[in-house]
Write a structure and sequence with these properties.
single chain, alpha/beta, 3 domains, 9-stranded parallel beta sheet, 7 helices, 34 strands, elongated, Pectin_lyase_fold/virulence, Beta_helix, Pectin_lyas_fold
Length: about 550
């Protein structure tokens, strides 16, 4: 009986952890990541995730490893899904807050700590990352005056809330607030990037930046509420959207409101000062942007600002003259927000000191709705500056019914893990010599094989159509007992971020030890690579690696 139990347990472990899976996380739980027994810590689920995993996270507050408030992603095609109730039977990110933030009592250091609350590793592929349904709050990463009326920059964390470097990044249905820096900063690559249905609130510098976008990238920015931006003398800002010179940027149905400036610098809803004429600007709402609605570099190299209604209307009808590929349907309109009373009093007192291109009558109308005096108190601009916006006053306070911005009442996306191949295969044990040209080398055409081999050097030849250079690493697996200089090797192709890839990285650190002991067990599909001049003309898409 014990024997059968052991076999069952092994098979369960293999099925659960060898291939992409759905992982569940709930604060206070101590399970192994199943729906019935979730992990209690999100950072642990991320550290164990492989390519294609979907991590489902219930409502609650998650502080990161050691309370650091940092969650670093280092595998491709990972999906993080928040906003579930405790039983994972309902998902509504704007009802069930899944909060990521730094612990107030964090005692760790800052060397090596990632800049973002969610951050893709700069050294590891995290392409295809989807983040859906989280609250990223930087308030606990910052320092404020005792009454929280102003931020203390020298003691605050100078980092974006969300940062990534790989291609095809999606962040949606999130609330991002209170960074002393950018809201979203990505080195945009690929043509499937999306920032949609997010609240991005109370940012310094840019709420969204495409400054580092790469050529031929495409970024969809749609249905976001981008609200309250701060300028800092000597540092710059504030921008709702900062557009870089590269990439096609599609800006549709967003709300840009309340951007502050000083001395006529910044305070723009949208900055196109690199003159990116592959930009589309459609159906957006603009309101109370102190510096202006849109700034751009025209074809003659002049930096110009659209802040008057007549120029704004002309932009809608003649986009080409404003370095836009397409435009139309944009409006200057009060979105109907009712911001937090405490916060808005201080914000409006600040901008009253230097009103810039604002309609102070409209600003005072909002003050009246909130029960504040009709005239903001003019005074020191530094008296009320960069204070935190409260999460509890985002919904419904910053929700609009004017046909643009975040939609909070809808059916939210459902996710499940997808296969990366290799499941349920029956492997045939073969000897390494079977891969030789003199034996069976030419006969392999997708046969599932199991064999022993040593780990050799990296390869650079991608012979198999199903193993692309962008998604796979190529490694030479050598005949057991041979040195790394041998010609007796086959090409192994390992999917980046997969379980096999993680094992490969681990085993490579001690490959001399394993090679001397007869190699490691390799499982995969073998193919003839069409090179009869090679001693072992075989390429193998590898699904699993194991020590003896």
């Amino acid at each position: 009986m014990k024997k059968y139990f052991f076999v069952f347990a092994f098979l369960f472990f293999f099925v659960m952890f060898a291939f992409p899976k759905d992982i569940y996380v709930r604060v206070g739980s101590s399970g192994n990541g199943t729906k019935d027994a979730p992990y209690g810590k999100l950072w642990k689920a991320i550290s164990k995730a492989v390519r294609g995993d979907v991590i489902h996270v219930a409502a609650g507050t998650y502080y990161g490893k050691g309370g650091s408030g940092n969650f670093t992603i280092g595998v491709p095609n990972l999906t993080l899904v928040g906003g579930y109730n405790v039983n994972f039977t309902e998902r509504n990110p704007f009802k069930y807050f899944t909060i990521l933030e730094r612990a107030k009592d964090y005692r760790g250091g800052f060397v090596g700590l990632g800049e973002g609350i969610i951050e893709g590793s700069e050294k590891k592929d995290h392409s295809g990352l989807i983040v859906d349904g989280f609250v990223l709050n930087s308030e606990t990463r910052n320092a404020y005056a005792p009454d929280k009326s102003k931020i203390i920059p020298k003691k605050s964390w100078k980092g974006a809330l969300f940062k990534a470097y790989s291609r095809n990044i999606t962040i949606k249905n999130c609330i991002l607030l209170n960074p002393y820096g950018n809201g979203i900063y990505v080195k945009w690559q690929g043509d499937k990037n999306e920032v949609s249905n997010n609240f991005i609130i109370n940012t310094f510098y840019a709420a969204i930046s495409t400054r580092s976008a790469q050529p031929n990238s495409k970024i969809l920015i749609k249905n976001n509420n981008i609200v309250f931006g701060w300028f800092q003398p000597g540092k710059g800002g504030s921008y709702g959207l900062f557009i870089g010179k590269n990439g096609k940027v599609v800006v549709n149905s967003n709300i840009f409101a309340f951007f502050q400036t000083e001395g006529g610098e910044a305070g723009y809803a949208v900055s196109n000062n690199f003159g990116n004429d592959f930009t589309e600007l459609k159906n957006n709402i603009f309101y109370q942007c102190q510096g202006g609605f849109y700034t751009y570099l025209d074809e003659d190299g002049k930096n110009l600002v659209v802040w008057k209604k007549e120029d704004f209307d002309d932009l809608n009808s003649d986009p080409e003259s404003y370095m836009l590929e397409e435009a139309g349907g944009n409006k200057i309109l009060n979105p109907g927000f009712k911001p937090d009373k405490w916060y808005f009093e201080k914000f409006s007192n600040f901008v009253a000191s230097k009103p810039g291109k604002l309609n102070m009558d409209e600003m005072n109308q909002i003050r009246s709705i909130l029960g504040l005096p009709l005239e903001a108190s003019k005074g020191s601009a530094r008296k009320n500056w960069g204070m935190p916006y409260p999460l509890s006053k985002v919904i419904p306070n910053l929700v609009s019914n004017k046909g643009a911005g975040v939609v909070v009442n809808k059916k939210f996306e459902e996710y499940s893990s997808k296969s990366t191949g290799g499941e349920n295969l029956k492997y045939t044990k073969v000897d390494f010599e079977d891969f030789s040209i003199s034996k069976r080398g030419k006969t392999f055409n997708g046969e599932a094989v199991e064999f022993f081999a040593g780990i050799g050097s990296n390869g650079y030849d991608y012979f198999l159509k199903d193993a692309s250079r962008s998604d796979y690493v190529c490694v030479k697996f050598i005949k057991p007992g041979e040195s790394s200089f041998t010609r007796k090797y086959v090409f192994g192709y390992i999917l980046k971020g997969s379980k096999a890839y993680k094992k490969f990285l681990k085993y490579s650190k001690r490959k001399d030890r394993y090679n001397k002991a007869g190699g490691i067990k390799v499982k995969g599909k073998a193919y003839y690579i069409g090179k009869p001049s090679y001693l072992y003309p075989v390429g193998i898409i590898i699904y699993d690696l194991n020590r003896h």
